[in-house]
Amino acid sequence: MQTVVKKWLRDKDFGFLENGNGPDIIVRKGDLVNCKFLKSGAVVEFECHQDQRGLKAKNVRLRRQENSNDNQWKFGVMK
Questions:
Q1: For the segment 15-60, what is each residue's pLDDT rounded down to a tens digit?
Q2: N or C: lower Cβ tally within 10 Å for the chain?
Q3: How far apart are CA 71 and CA 53, in angstroms?
Q4: CA–CA–CA angle 58, 44, 34 (5° rounding)
Q5: How many other C-beta atoms are found inside a 10 Å radius of the C-beta of residue 16?
Q6: CA 41 to CA 75: how far, in whole Å?
């Protein structure tokens, strides 16, 4: 799946992804691939899983920004 980061709580090492009209999808730092944290507005790809508390994102990866001139990641921080 692909969506936008709604909010990242850096001091708590988790955040939320947009889910249209549905409930937000939680993402934890341990589920990020090749980055340390996310920024609001970043586009990510992920696997969505359901548990007793709600929706969780796993294997979350930043999407490359297609219009970037220097071919760097626009949002998030790479390791």
A1: 999 999 999 999 999 999 999 999 999 999 999 999 999 999 999 9
A2: C
A3: 38
A4: 70
A5: 19
A6: 8
